[in-house]
Amino acid sequence: MVNVIRKIVDSVPFPAAMINRDHTVVASNGMFQKLLVKFNHDIVGLKIGAALNCRCAGPCGCRCGLAAVIDASNVMCRKLTDVPILISYHSGAAALHTVTTARVGEEVLLMIRESEGGR
What are the C-alpha distances in Å from 34 to residues 62, 108, 116? Predict the structure, then answer.
C-alpha cells in the first residue's frame, strides 16, 4: 500500500501530501518538500500543521481551517477544490494558499498552492 500511496503523491503536478485520519503526513512529493524546505523523512510522521509550521498547530487547535477541509473531504468522501486557507507561520508571516483535497482509500490527498504572502 505504501508504494501505491507514493505513486499517487508523486504523480501530482504540484505540492501534495497524503494525510491520514489524525492529520499525520504519510507521504509527500518533491514539490511539497521543496515548498517546506524539508526532506520527506522530516515531514512524514508530523501532523500537517506542524509540517507546515502553522502557528495554529499548537494546543489551541486549528484556526486556519486546514483541518476542517481535510476532515470534510474525509467524511464526505469527495474532492474539495481550491479552498482558500490563510496560514499564519511561527515566524509571524502569513500566506494565503489554495488547497484541494480528495479522499484516497483511508487517507486524504492534500494538494496545496501558495497564492500570496510569504514565510
Answer: 23, 20, 17
Q: 70-91 burial string, b = 16+ CB within 10 Å, else e?
A: beebbeeeeebeebebebbbee
Q: Residue 61: give its domain's CATH number.
A: 3.30.450.20
Look up the domain containing 36 and give its range.
Answer: 2-117
Q: What is the pLDDT of residue 49?
A: 87
Where does residue 59 fall: left (phi above 0), alpha (psi -120 to 50 degrees), or beta otherwise?
alpha
The answer to whether the pTM exceeds 0.70 is: yes
Q: Chain centroid to CA 7: how far?
A: 17
Helix (H, G, I), strand (E, B) or coil at 23: coil
Please give the tally of structural domains in the chain. 1
Query: Which pLDDT tens digit goes with each residue over 13-61?
Result: 999 999 999 999 999 999 999 988 999 899 999 999 889 888 776 555 6
